[in-house]
Structure formats: C-alpha cells, structure tokens
Design goal:
This protein is mainly beta. Helix content is 0%, strand content 62%. It has strands at 41-50, 55-73, 76-85, 90-102, 105-108, 113-116, 124-131, 135-153, 156-172, 175-186, 190-197, 205-214. Residues 1-18 and 20-28 have low confidence and may be disordered.
C-alpha cells in the first residue's frame, strides 16, 4: 500500500539522480532563458495562495540568488549559485547549486537536467520518493512546455515564457492525485515565476515572483 507522508516543497532542489534519458549532442544550442554570468542575481517575493478563500497574501519573505563565482569540475566550468530559498529548509545564506550550460541544457554537477532550451519531447529528472519499508509516497518527473499566461510581478509583466514543469503524483492509501510545479523562465532574464506546494490534500500553494534582478 502506498501512503503519503508530509514532505518539503520544491522537490527539484532535493533530487540528485542523474538524468540519463536526454541526448545533449547539439553543440550549437545555448541557454537564452538562463543567463549565466558571475554577478547576475535574482530576488523573489513569496506569496501564499489559498484558492478556496480566493486570497493571495505576500508572506514578506524573499528569496535571493546570486552567481558568486565559477568552479572547474572534471574539465567543465560550473557557475556557483548562492542564496536563500524560503520554504525549503534553505532559509539561510548558503550554496543553492552548481550549474552549467550543456549545449542548451541547464545541468548540475550530477548531470541532472534543470531546464532545457529546445527539448519539448524528453522527460527529465524522473524519480520516486521512497520512505520506510520501501514505501513509495510520490512519483516525480519534469517536462518542458510553453507557458502562455501573462505573469504579473514587481519587476514587470511578462507574456509567458518557457516552463520547466514538474508533475508530482502523490499516494494516499489506495488513491493517488496529481499536482504540478511551475518554473517559468523569460528570455535573457531567467526564472520569473515559480509555484510549489506542501504535500497533502490541501489546495494551497506558494508562488515566487521575480521582484528585481541584475543581468551582466
């Protein structure tokens, strides 16, 4: 029997399995939606959304991410992203991740694909969350798709972008239900909008909206 336990939001940040389903042979491809340069930074406001009550409340908490430096790993140059990410247990300043542009794929040092510029076919970062006595409480995978809605943020309004969309199938007793993560990127800017949720049957979610940024 599959059961659900309460687990943290933004599963992408805690996953570490290498994505081996993706071909990355197009050396002409580049990341236009994820600017990678030392000194680039992004700040996000966090909002608590309650669809049942019809409320959107600014939590007063902010995320901050900056590309602090680069580092050489096995002949590849990775950019070191430092910052604070609320609601993930990473709410004090520290390492966020190490990333590089791999022919149009944003990958970390473990090979996990975190974004793809032109690949709308493959499934990325597919894994299962298993606890206890080999009990699967969720299956997770990511895909790329266009995001067509207008996004309103303190940094401006955006006519959609590219969405690194996470699908999470959660299991409660003998039932399952599906929720989604949205990670929307704008060209030449980076991530502008994100949604995540707390596990369980609640309909509430967290929105992270870009408030200000600097691109070198």
């Amino acid at each position: 029997m599959k059961k659900l336990l309460y687990f943290a939001t933004i599963i992408a940040l805690i996953s570490c399995k290498k994505d081996e389903s993706t071909s990355q042979n197009n050396n002409q491809a580049q990341l236009y939606h994820v600017p990678l340069a030392i000194g680039n930074y992004w700040v996000y406001e966090n909002f608590n959304v309650n669809p049942d009550m019809g409320t959107v409340q600014n939590s007063g908490l902010k995320d901050s991410i900056v590309i602090q430096r680069d580092i050489l790993i096995k002949g590849n140059t990775y950019f070191v992203r430092m910052g604070i990410i609320q609601y993930t247990g990473n709410n004090s300043w520290g390492l966020v991740d190490l990333v590089r542009d791999s022919s149009g794929y944003l990958v970390n040092e473990k090979g996990t694909v975190l974004f793809a510029e032109n690949d709308f076919v493959n499934t990325f970062n597919s894994w299962s969350l298993v606890v206890g006595n080999n009990d699967t409480i969720a299956d997770i995978f990511y895909t790329m798709e266009p995001y067509l809605d207008v996004i309103h943020t303190a940094s401006g309004d955006y006519n959609g972008g590219l969405n690194y969309k996470g699908t999470v199938i959660q299991y409660i007793s003998d039932s399952s239900f599906t929720k989604y993560f949205n990670n929307v990127y704008a060209e030449d800017i980076g991530k502008i909008f994100e949604t995540s949720f707390f596990a369980g049957t609640t309909n509430n979610w967290i929105e992270k909206r870009l408030s200000n940024y600097l691109i070198q």
